[in-house]
Recover the amino acids of this structure.
């Protein structure tokens, strides 16, 4: 009976890792790809590590698996945020279906500080979106 539960958790982890890979292929821009990947892959790897800890049934393996899961839960969102922020500053275009860019006008170009009040246009980065593929982002 325990083997069936371990197999179910393992297949659940494989399913979420598969969803993360589908998200990388199907999402239209970098920001949505990173969101899908960081969430689904973290859950999938967490389930795989849980199945591994249950399968080996040893305290040392379980503590390493729990430590790895905690490490992933702490570091994955931070890493995804930092990569997305760097991409935003580099001018990676948003998806053409994006309705609102809530960060536009809130960042200083010089020190990359975030303000709650919109800055004037001399100190902010406004993405240049041209052509039919990228209509104006509001």
């Amino acid at each position: 009976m325990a083997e069936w539960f371990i197999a179910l958790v393992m297949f659940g982890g494989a399913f979420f890792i598969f969803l993360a890979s589908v998200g990388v292929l199907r999402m239209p821009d970098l920001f949505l790809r990173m969101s899908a990947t960081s969430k689904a892959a973290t859950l999938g790897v967490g389930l795989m590590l849980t199945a591994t800890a249950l399968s080996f049934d040893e305290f040392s393996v379980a503590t390493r698996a729990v430590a790895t899961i905690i490490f992933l839960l702490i570091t994955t969102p931070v890493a995804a945020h930092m990569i997305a922020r760097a991409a935003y500053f580099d001018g990676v275009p948003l998806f053409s279906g994006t309705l609102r860019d809530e960060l536009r006008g809130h960042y200083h170009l010089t020190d990359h500080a975030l303000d709650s009040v919109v800055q004037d246009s001399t100190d902010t980065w406004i993405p240049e979106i041209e052509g039919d593929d990228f209509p104006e982002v509001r």
The two ends are 55 Å apart (CA to CA). The chain is about 60% helix and 0% strand. The CA atoms of residues 16 and 44 lie 5 Å apart.
